[in-house]
Amino acid sequence: MMGMKKMRFLFEVLVPALLTGMLASMAEGRTHYYDFVLKETNFTRLCSTKSMTTVNDSFPGPVIRIHRGDLVYVNVHNQDDFGVTIHWHGVKQTRNPWSDGPDHITQCRIQPGTNFTYKVIFGEDQEGTLWWHAHSDWTRATVHGAIVILPTQGTTYPFPKPDGEHLLVLASWFAGDFNEEYEEYLSNQTGTSFDDIAFTINGEPGDLVACGGETTHRWLVDYGKTYLLRIVNVVVNSELFFAISEHNLTIVGTDGTYTKPRVTSYIMIAPGQTMDVLITTNQSLGHYYMAARQFVTFDPSITGFNNMTATAILQYRGNYPPPDVPSFPINLPLFHDLDSGLGFLSLLRSLATPEHPVNVPLNITTRMFVTASINKVNYTFEGTEVSHFAASLNNITFMDPTSSILLAYYRHTSGVYTTDFPDYPPSYYNFTGDTYPPPMSVLATKVKVLNYNESVEIVVQWTNLLGQGADHPLHLHGYTFYVVGMGRGNFNNETDPKGYNLVDPPERNTITVPKNGWVALRFLANNPGVWLWHCHFDRHLIWGMDTAFIVKNGETPETSILPPPAYMPSCAVQSLIRLEDFQDSVELFNEINVN
């Protein structure tokens, strides 16, 4: 009798409790721990050996692989000789800006010989491919890696499960000592360029460069299978075309969200973006080049750009005579093919299913019209007034403080930033024309403040100031946004909104503002914190094409910023920035126009 009672207790009480706990654990996800060690490592490419900063001695760096709903802690040990921060690109970091990573914005640098642990909180809806990278100076050129977010355990993809998957990281390769060359570039007041000399696919430039070939990346596949290929563009200053010879690509996801399947023979992918594509291996057994080359949108008369094509090889398994040369993708667009590059931007749509819904804000409470420009700025350098190339949003060239904006906001510290980033540019003109006002911008640290749950629409207009117009891939930290509209020419606020896609617009964290055009974004400001918004061409970022959004707390603890961790890297130096309110900026702009 006692045995029967024990059995009954076991099955009626303990087993359901255990099952409930297991299900709760599955719903909450697992916790993963990583150690990242930053230090110098030697690599040989293009017939030359050099030392460069890496994570765990690898280029690209380690892959973070998790399931949807999981939590990640990364302990970063800085064994290099300069400070660094790490950003988790596309990760929403819900209520946790403390671990977002941009230098000067949410933290100060992890100093040599110290460490800092990041708590990486993914959005509950995030699934697909994201990535991580250094967010201090241009260190991300060599400090980066992919993040793979698999479906929640027990669920699957919104398309037939692939037979396998593969990851490709497209990156820049610089000659010489990167850090020394970068410092020299910053000290040069003439605007001389600092450019990569090659691109790499999974760390290798491929067959078409000096001393290439032996280490070219190879992907071994079986005939008749369907593979999920995850592609990440971590290149410093270039958009890229990518194609696989004689194989179509079916796009099924971008930036950690799913899309309606779109079949294409090539993709155009901007720095900061990820793309998930399906490929079916249905061609003759052989070797096929996977190739990436730059999509160039600046003046075509400029010839001094990186015109190298990176290659890797898709290689079928089996018994067949290997070809002398792999097949090359003849459908890979040429460098200046604007129609192929800009035409690709409107191809994608959100999946928009009950399992992966679309929630486009409809009742807009905050509207912004923002111009993205290349300017000039005057400032004092070593006692002399000099003019230098700059970049701006609404004519404001963002100047980094020497302390953290997030910490200043959280502690109510004044003098670090002002809250008057303008909703509109100081003047209107033919933004895409060849005649423009004096291209001087204003140096300031201005941010935009949003109330919790504001419905935001931002129209970003490309400009041709200085005749320096090129695409601008803009990335928003802490959020994804819906790309509800895009077009050529100057935005028309009466006719263009009529063509907005409010049904299934693509959801991105990085979007290209097209040359001679505009793009319209919408998002709900429901993630409190301080979030950087910037061009993902690092040259334009350090020139000042960025600002930050401060999203206020909601009315409950669950809609408020999490408390800071017990330890944050210290900010030893206070900000020395001379701040101006917006009226001063307008008066200065008008004075420049008059003179």
From TrEMBL:
GO cellular component: apoplast
Catalytic activity, reaction form: 4 hydroquinone + O2 = 4 benzosemiquinone + 2 H2O
GO molecular function, a single term: hydroquinone:oxygen oxidoreductase activity
Top EC category: oxidoreductase
EC number(s) given by UniProt: 1.10.3.2
Localisation per UniProt entry: Secreted, Extracellular space, Apoplast
Cofactor note: Binds 4 Cu cations per monomer.
Signal peptide segment: 1-29
Family designation: Belongs to the multicopper oxidase family.
Protein name: Laccase
Top-level taxonomy: Eukaryota, Viridiplantae, Streptophyta, Embryophyta, Tracheophyta
